[in-house]
TrEMBL record:
The keyword Ligase does not apply. This is Crotonyl-CoA carboxylase/reductase. InterPro entries: ADH-like_C, ADH-like_N, Crot_CoA_red, ER, GroES-like_sf, NAD(P)-bd_dom_sf, Zinc-ADH_QOR/CCCR. Keywords: NADP. It comes from Photorhabdus tasmaniensis. Residues 12-376 form the Enoyl reductase (ER) domain.
Length: 384
C-alpha cells in the first residue's frame, strides 16, 4: 500500500519527516478490522509523531514487539470496511465508517481510556490513517454520518470526542445551561468543536483568538463572546511571584483579561469551565479567571508543558484542575450521534491531496491557517 511514513532519520518538521513510500499492508488480529481509508484528519498527533518528541514513536514499537523501522501516523479517518478479524461482530464488509483513535483491550469495561492498556492509534500504535489501508480495533469503528462527505467525516472525531469528555466526563463539573465556558484557540479543531458543544448544552462559549479572521469564524460557528489575546501581554509562565512589582504587573493584566470576559458575557461572571490546551502560555490565566468552585480541564500543551500558577487562588477559591485524555467508548459514541443528528458540524475548512499531507501538518504547526479542521484525500481523491 502507499503510505506517508515517518522514519527516525527524518524526525523534525513535517515537511521533511513525512515521505510517501510503499509498505506492506498490516496483518489483522482477531478483534481488528481492515479499513480502506477514504480520507484522514489532520491533528497535532501527526506533528508530535513527525518530531519524534516527546515520544520516539518508531522506537516505541520495540516495547510492543512490533518494530518496523517506520511509523504511519494519523488518528482520524473515514473509510470502508474490507476485512474482518475472526472475532469481530456487528460490523460488515462494505460498511461506511468513521474511526476513533482509542485503542484498548476488548475485555475492558467502564472508563476504557483510563485502563492501563489504553493507547492512541496512529501515535502510540502504528499503521494509522495516513495510508491507503489501516487496521483498527473493532470498538473504534462507528457509523459514518450519511449526510457528510468522506473528507468531512474524517475530520472531527479526535477533537470532537476530546472536547466531549472535557465537557461531560468529570462530575460534578459537567457543562450546564447558563455556564460561562472559556475556550482557548476557539477557531481551531478543538475550539470549534467546544463552541458547538457549549451551545448544544445551553452554555455561553467565550472564545480566545489572535486575529480578526479567527474572531469572525468563531462568531459564525456560535461563539457568544470573543477575546483577542493580542490585546494582552501577560502570556507565559509566572516567573515573578517573589518580585512584588513584576507580579503586580502580571495580576493587572490578568484582571484586565478577566474583566473582558465579564464584558463579553454581559455580567460579572467567571468561567465555570475553562477548556485549556495551549498549556504553558495560558495556564496561569486559566487558573486565575476560573470561577470559584469551577474547573480548568486541560488536554494538551501545544505552547509548552510548564504549568505555573498562583496556588493561593487555587485553594482559597476551591478550583479544580483536571487532566483529560481523548475519550472512552461511550463518549465517542455519544459525540458521533450528535454529528449524525446534525447538531455538530465537522467545521472542515481545507482539504489536501495525499501528496500534500506534509504541507498540511506544517501549516498547522506554524499556526498559519488555524480555522476549523483539515482533511487529507486518500481513497476518495480524483485520480489525475
Amino acid at each position: 500500500m502507499l503510505a506517508q511514513t515517518i522514519r527516525p532519520e527524518r524526525y523534525g518538521h513535517p515537511l521533511i519527516a513525512f515521505e510517501l513510500e510503499r509498505v506492506s499492508i498490516p496483518p489483522l488480529e482477531p478483534d481488528e478490522c481492515l479499513i480502506k481509508v477514504m480520507a484522514a484528519g489532520v491533528n497535532y498527533n501527526g506533528i508530535w509523531a513527525a518530531k519524534g518528541y516527546p515520544v520516539d514513536v518508531v522506537n516505541l514499537q520495540k516495547k510492543y514487539g512490533t518494530y518496523n523501522g517506520l511509523h504511519i501516523a494519523g488518528s482520524d479517518a473515514s473509510g470502508i470496511v474490507i476485512a474482518l478479524g475472526k472475532n469481530v461482530t456487528n460490523i460488515a464488509i462494505g460498511d461506511e465508517v468513521v474511526l476513533h483513535c482509542g485503542w484498548w483491550d476488548g475485555s475492558v469495561s467502564g472508563d476504557e481510556i483510563m485502563d492501563k492498556s489504553a493507547k492512541i492509534w496512529g501515535y502510540e500504535i502504528n499503521f494509522g490513517a495516513f495510508a491507503e489501508y489501516t487496521r483498527v480495533k473493532q470498538h473504534a469503528v462507528l457509523p459514518k454520518p450519511s449526510h457528510l462527505s468522506w473528507e468531512q467525516a474524517a475530520s472531527y472525531m479526535l477533537c470532537g470526542a476530546t472536547a466531549y469528555r472535557m465537557f461531560h466526563g468529570f462530575e460534578p463539573h459537567t457543562v450546564k445551561a447558563g455556564d460561562v465556558i472559556l475556550i482557548w484557540g476557539g477557531s481551531g479543531g478543538l475550539g470549534s468543536m467546544a463552541i458547538q458543544l457549549a451551545n448544544a448544552a445551553g452554555a455561553i462559549p467565550v472564545a480566545v483568538v489572535s486575529s480578526q479572521e479567527k474572531a469572525d469564524y468563531c462568531r459564525k460557528i456560535g461563539a457568544k463572546g470573543i477575546i483577542d489575546r493580542r490585546n494582552y501581554k501577560h502570556w507565559g509562565p509566572i516567573e515573578d511571584l517573589i518580585n512584588p512589582s513584576k507580579y503586580s504587573q502580571w495580576v493587572s493584566e490578568a484582571r484586565r483579561f478577566q474583566k473582558e470576559i465579564w464584558k463579553q458575557v454581559g455580567e460579572k461572571k467567571n468561567p465555570n469551565i475553562v477548556i485549556e490546551h495551549p498549556g504553558e502560555d495560558t495556564f496561569p490565566t486559566s487558573s486565575f479567571v476560573c470561577s470559584q468552585g469551577g474547573m480548568v480541564v486541560i488536554c494538551a500543551g501545544t505552547s509548552g508543558y510548564r504549568g505555573t500558577f498562583d496556588i493561593r487562588y487555587h485553594w482559597m477559591r476551591q478550583k479544580r484542575f483536571q487532566g483529560s485524555h481523548f475519550a472512552n467508548q461511550t463518549q465517542c459514541t455519544e459525540f458521533n450521534k450528535l454529528v449524525c443528528q446534525g447538531v455538530i458540524s465537522p467545521c472542515l475548512t481545507r482539504v489536501f491531496d495525499f501528496e500534500n499531507l506534509p504541507e498540511a501538518h506544517q501549516i498547522m504547526l506554524e499556526n498559519r491557517e488555524p480555522l476549523g479542521n483539515f482533511a487529507i484525500r486518500i481513497g476518495c481523491r480524483v485520480e489525475k
